[in-house]
Amino acid sequence: MELSFKRYDKDTMLHYVGNVLIVLSIANIVPTVFALLFEESLAFKLLMVFETIIIYVIGYMLSRQYQPGSVGLVEAMTIMVFAFLLPPFMMLFPLLTKGVDLIDALFEGVSSITTTGLSCLPPSAMDPTVDFLRSYYQWIGGLGIAFFTLTVLVPPGSAAYNIYLAHLGKIRISPLSRKNVIEILKIYSVLTFSAFITYLVLGMNIYSAVINALTTVSTGGFSTYAIFPSNLLPIVTLFMFISAQPLVTYYMLLKYRRGRIFSPQLVSFTIGVLIGSILLSMASGIPLMKSIFETVSAASTTGYTALNLADSNDLTRFVLVILMLSGACLGSTGGGIKQLRIIILVKSFVRHIKRTLAPRGTILPIKVSGEIIQDDDIKLAYNLLFVYLLVLVVSTLIFMMYGYSLSSSLFETASALATTGLSVGVSSWQLAVPLKIVLIIDMWLGRVEIIPFIIVFYNLFYK
To answer: Which one of 15, 249, 318, 415 counts the least CB within 10 Å of its CB?
Structure first.
């Protein structure tokens, strides 16, 4: 029997892509103003201005010319995929004026919007304007371009719900409304401002406080510190931990639903951090505070470091790889496989053991927070894990073919796929172009979570 797939409504897709472009152009005003106010080349300034105007005009024309129809989950996934595909090209052209290679500029754009934090910029291209541009796009990417589109331009209803669901998964706010979404945006902004003020109090200058606040709350990783000083570790650890939790958790806190705050994801993440900190301290011999900082940085997929990871041993790298891959909580700005899926996989394994021992016909549902997890969700978690590990293995093998060790290859590709940004020194402007392309693909797939991309690609090109 021949399979048939729903065709996309061209008008609907072009309308929402136009909306994404409008949001991107509005978001681009901030770094454009920053470039105009600070010392910067005329070419850089002109490109930022023209780019903002042109993208807005194209987006406006598309959104006005094409009228949207109904938006299903697949269409919402398509919009999300495009929302993370377009921003890197907005960063690309300004970076080219700095003499940056085309692939390096694309690498930096993808690393920014996916909140990874790996970098291939040559030292000569680094200046305050570029640093702010990268960090700002990490902040935008942390919340999600799809989420911004929903907030500003998409009216409440089925389309808004489906786009929201595509980006944040099964964590829902009911009823979903623009008011609720704006509340979450406010929370994200308040967390960022709180980090900024705290960093100022700790002694950072204004510029450094801005950069690190943007990249902490977005779990992005670009920082003004190559290695964080000891006096900053406790408070930065706290903000990374907070940012690794679902944004809706803080929405619930404001609504005084305290019973919803201590979720299985929070418990799972905390247990992982505690175990990881002990193992990392034993593996590397570093003080416990540094170990906790490094563990939270890896597990939240922020990517800050207090160590020279290039000199780390294989056991230290292995512990950090496990933490990066397990990732933050579903619904947060972090990456990785996500804690909720880890919980589902563990509960599924335990159920399998119980079923083997129980009488035939025994019903053993899997529950999380009192909710029964459907078999389709369990299968999805297994499928994602399989594809995730497959991409990781292939990427690692490619790096090893270029002469890198197993531990270095696994660490760098795991960091890209989990959108973490920790590096053992492999990622740089001197890296071979094919390997840069591998990391670009890993970062992008890690952010859109692979399966949505496969669904979109398959549905677009299936004949």
So the answer is: 318
Collapsing DSSP to helix, strand or coil, 227 comes out as coil
- Decide if 131 contacts 224 (C-beta within 8 A): yes
Q: How big, in percent rounded to 5, are the helix, strand and coil portions of the chain?
A: 70, 0, 30
CB atoms within 10 A of CB 363: 6
Q: In 327-374, which ranges are continuous DSSP H helix? A: 339-357
Whole-number Å distance between alpha carbons of 234 and 320: 19
What burial class does residue 336 get, using C-beta atoms within 10 Å of its C-beta: 0-12 exposed, 13-18 middle, 19+ buried?
A: buried
Instruction: Flag whether pLDDT at 176 surpasses 70.
Output: no
Least Cα distance to 411 among 340, 311, 339, 320 occurs for: 320
Write out pLDDT tens, residues 277-311: 999 999 999 999 999 999 999 999 999 999 999 99
Per residue in 104-151, pLDDT (tens digit) is 999 999 999 999 999 999 888 888 899 999 999 999 988 775 465 444
Dist CA 386 CA 417 (whole Å): 14
The DSSP element (H or E) to which 367 belongs, if any, is strand 367-368
SS3 359: coil
Name residue, tokens 């040559």: 122
What average pLDDT does the structure give for the chain?
Answer: 84
- The answer to whether 118 and 421 are in contact (CB under 8 A) is yes
2, 19 in Cβ contact below 8 A? no
Contacts of 445 (CB under 8 A, 6+ apart): 391, 417, 453
Burial 255-281 (b: 16+ CB within 10 A, else e): eeeeeeeebbbbebbeebbeebbebbb
221 in the Ramachandran plot: left (φ > 0), alpha (ψ -120 to 50) or beta? Answer: left
CA atoms within 13 A on the CB side of 356: 6
Q: How far apart are CA 16 and CA 75, in angstroms?
A: 10
Q: What are phi and psi of 227, to 5 degrees?
A: -135, 125
Cβ atoms < 10 Å from Cβ of 364: 11
Characterize 365-397 residue by residue with b for buried, 16 or more Cβ atoms within 10 angstroms of its Cβ, and e for exposed: ebebeeeebeeebbeebeebbebbeebbeebbe
Q: In this structure, are residues 19 and 55 in contact, taking their beta carbons and an 8 Å threshold? A: no
Its pTM stands at 0.89
H/E stretch holding 372: strand 371-372
| Gap between the Cα atoms of 129 and 428, Å rounded | 20
